[in-house]
Amino acid sequence: MKLWGGRFEKTTNVMVDDFNSSIRFDKRLYKQDITGSIAHVTMLGKQGIIPMDDADVIKSGLKELLIDIDNNKVAFDIEAEDIHMNIEKLLIEKIGIVGKKLHTGRSRNDQVTLDMRMYLKEEIIEIKAMVIDLMNTLLTIAKNNLDTIMPGYTHLQKAQPITFAHHIMAYFEMLKRDVGRLNDTYKRTNHLPLGAGALATTTYPLDRDYVAKLLDFGDICINSIDAVSDRDYCIELLNTLSMLMMHLSRFSEEVILWCSNEFQFIELDDSYSTGSSIMPQKKNPDIAELVRGKTGRVFGSHLGLLTTMKSLPLAYNKDMQEDKEATFDAIDTVKMCLPIFNDMLKTLKVNKQNMYNGAGGGFTNATDAADYLVKKNVPFRDAHEIIGKLVLYCVTNNKNLEELSLEEYKNVSPYFEDDIYNAISLETCVNKRNVIGGPSKEMMNKVISINENYLNSLS
Predict the structure, then answer these.
(1) Which domain, by its residues, includes 79?
(2) In this structure, is residue 78 part of a structural domain?
(3) Where does a domain end: 333, 357, 381?
(4) What's the pTM value of the predicted model, to 2 decimals?
(5) CA 324 to CA 315: how far, in whole Å?
(6) Which residues, other chains included, contact 29 with Cβ-Cβ below 8 Å and sequence gap of 6+?
(7) Is residue 212 part of a domain?
């Protein structure tokens, strides 16, 4: 007989048991469920709601049960529906009738959201550590490529020369925002729902603040209806993970482009590449492609849970059981992607000369040529037009700006002198951009120092 079966005359249909059950996926919450139950029963004993001797017996039974599950000595029962009822059923089997007192003063409604909040808090900490590891890798790559000049792009068209360090640190900034979002998500997840009951608390004199302290929650949920019906913390985490995966996906796209024959800016290590079953020459960036592909999977989890929650009346509804598979899958996907993506970056080879050669084409120094004229008191719009004419001349004559003679320059504007060649050299173009946020070596060293201090503040 089910633990809630007193009101029913018939047993549930086998298909209903299977459809209703969540033990297949929520069994991963067993540690959180037992830990939360130990805190709950400790409070029940302290408050005199159940005898202290009974509380001690229940706690001992729960601790033994945790060891049994860790050692794979327990088989969960689909008829018990979920991890919460399974734990209670197993506890009663282990310690007898006293185990039936465990559920005093709580509901599965507040129990399930407690378990999820505890689980997500742990996962957020793990994911954040993985992101920080990736940021350290980016910082190392940047330090090693302060002088590695490459083309910067807009519209995937060559725009201005930058450094590989400057480009890599753009992703560092994205990950900093991801860490901030993980911290914010943790803060809003860190509220104790236990004590809300089914939706209207209980008549027992619970000490919710005591339970919050035992379980290391920063605060308690102060509206019992909201406490059991809220899944914002799951949705917020899925949004945060979606943003993180979007950043990894953008980075993956560039890795895929950079290691193509058309770019040849980088080469992936053999251990992080795959071949073709038919084309012997192939070296495929499958890791980057899979990270890019799995991004859609995380997006789907986020949108799916939003859609599930959008029309639910207060308070708890069984629809909310759908929070777990979506959230678990997104967490698993992100935790799978971050370490392998990090290792792929650690082992890639940077083809510095190819990057430099790439920056030398496409007139990436055209803006600097215009700035050269502006510094000689030519209005910027006029300078822009003059350089535009020079670029058209170069295209027509299959030249670049560095190859033009001074006479060719003066045919377009008398303001050009011999110093134009230094002004448009790639090194000058990069290192004269000495504004904070820019690609110059001086500024990049300053930014790297700022971000080293940032990472140190996280540890």
Answers:
(1) 5-104
(2) yes
(3) 357
(4) 0.93
(5) 18
(6) 83, 115, 116, 119
(7) no
**pLDDT of 138 higher than 70:** yes
Residue 215, domain member (yes or no):
no
Q: Is the dihedral of CA 120, 125, 128, 134 positive or negative?
A: negative
Shared-domain flag, residues 85 and 152: no
The mean per-residue pLDDT over the stretch 431-436 comes to: 95
* 74 and 129 belong to one structural domain: no
Indicate the average pLDDT of the chain. Answer: 95
114-137 residue pLDDT tens:
999 999 999 999 999 999 999 999
**Residue 436: per-residue pLDDT:** 95
Of 312, 335, 357, the residue at which a domain comes to its end is 357
316: pLDDT strictly greater than 70: yes
Give the DSSP letter string of 283-347. Answer: -B-HHHHHHHHHHHHHHHHHHHHHHHHTTPPSS--GGGGGHHHHHHHHHHHHHHHHHHHHHHHHH
Tokens 């929520």 found at: 26
Percent of the chain with pLDDT over 90: 91
* Mean pLDDT, residues 213-218: 98
Q: Considering its fold, how many domains does the chain have in total?
A: 3
Which residue numbers are catalytic? Answer: 155, 276
Residues 136, 276: Cα–Cα separation, whole Å = 33
Indicate whether 100 and 23 sit together in one domain.
Answer: yes
Contact 179, 131 (CB under 8 A): yes
Q: Find out whether 80 and 89 touch, Cβ atoms under 8 Å.
A: yes
Return the residue matching tokens 């996280």.
458
Q: Assess if residue 169 is contained within a domain.
A: yes
Kind of pairing, strands 266-267 and 219-220?
Answer: unpaired
CA 255 centroid distance within chain: 19
**Same structural domain for residues 292 and 424?**
no
Q: Say whether both 42 and 70 belong to one domain.
A: yes
pLDDT in tens, 360-390: 989 999 999 999 999 999 999 999 999 999 9
Same domain, 331 and 265: yes
What are the distances in angstroms from CA 68 to CA 30, 38, 75, 91, 132?
11, 16, 10, 11, 35
Mean pLDDT to the nearest integer, 41-51: 98
What's 52's domain CATH number? Answer: 1.10.275.10
Identify the band that residue 17 occupies on the pLDDT scale cut at 50, 70 and 90.
low
Q: What's the DSSP call for residue 82?
A: S
